[in-house]
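Can't paste images in this forum, so I'm doing it all in text. The chain is below; anyone willing to post the predicted structure tokens underneath?
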Amino acid sequence: MSRLTRWWQLLRGKINLARICLRTSVLFFLFPLFFSLPAVSPGEAPAISRELHWAVTGEKFELALERLYAEKRPRHRSPVVLIHGIFVNSRLFNLDEDQSLARYLASEGFDVWNLSLRGTGRSLNPLRGGPKSWTLDDMVDRDLSAVVRYVRKESSSSKILWLGYEMGGLLLYGHLEKRGASDSAALVTIGAPVTFNHPLQEPLKGLLRLEGSPALKRVLLSLNTPFFARLLLPFVPKIERLFYNPENIEEEVKAALLEDALAEVNPGVLDHLLLMIKRGEFVSARGDFSYRRNLAKIQLPILFIGGEGDVLAPPETIRVAHRAVSSKDRTLRIFGPRSKDSIAYGHVDLILGRKAREEVFPVIGRWLKQRDRRE
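Text version of the structure:
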């Protein structure tokens, strides 16, 4: 009866229609301010934009940075810089649309910067002249400082979230020990050992034979690492298991890894790696500074990630770093059946594993969001 009365009043001109329209319009415009609507439909993947940037070091070395961000989602204000490991390039983080930690973080709202370390990807040559050989110390002292300056300027952020895989994690340990954490909000390391004397790492000592055979070392460097990897990994199971759990990586992903994500190793980096294997810990190229023994200088939040089946970075080597830092906010996560994950993760499959997107990536994304220091 009341509804009929309202319609009758409207027809008779008893109700001010203009006032109703005005109120409705006001509510229409105010509603989005209090109830945000999703920019992307549920279940729909956001479009990811990609840009190529260059950070230039003091010796005019151009370092390529691939920037990724979701077009229709708000970004977290602290940028995330990804740093790859040895023998691989930045494609490890962005192999394709499905197998990509970089795209996953961008879809979660992060401003992602995927770095190609000197000598890999597009970061191949200095602008004029420059060194032909370098060490991890050069990357710590020169490259990361240039990246910090550039990313902070372009993103208008004073704090950076870091993620380092394997050697990338070691470089970040060194950066934080030497430069402090004034430019950093938090750190994630994946498969980044600071010691090399665990029984499972014994096969690494086979590389020390190169020290006694300069000719063999020259052959290795001239033929380049990707050539040997493509030749040996698919056909030598013992070597293959060093780098990943074969049961945890799809054949097409393995093929893409071997084809697109491998990188040559620089002579100076190889010599530095051999010294670390010989000394059993992460030390400087001259052996006069122990990065492992200075881990206590690191105090910012850190997430340590390892694989239960990782031979190159066994869980105990990750625990060494976890125990050594002074961070009050430190988290250790070893992926495998003991943590109720689908399988024992190896080394590379922490990034490229069959279920890494469902099991590993969300852990990283949630942890970073919780520690993103908005300014």
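The mean pLDDT is 87. Residues 2-29 form one domain.
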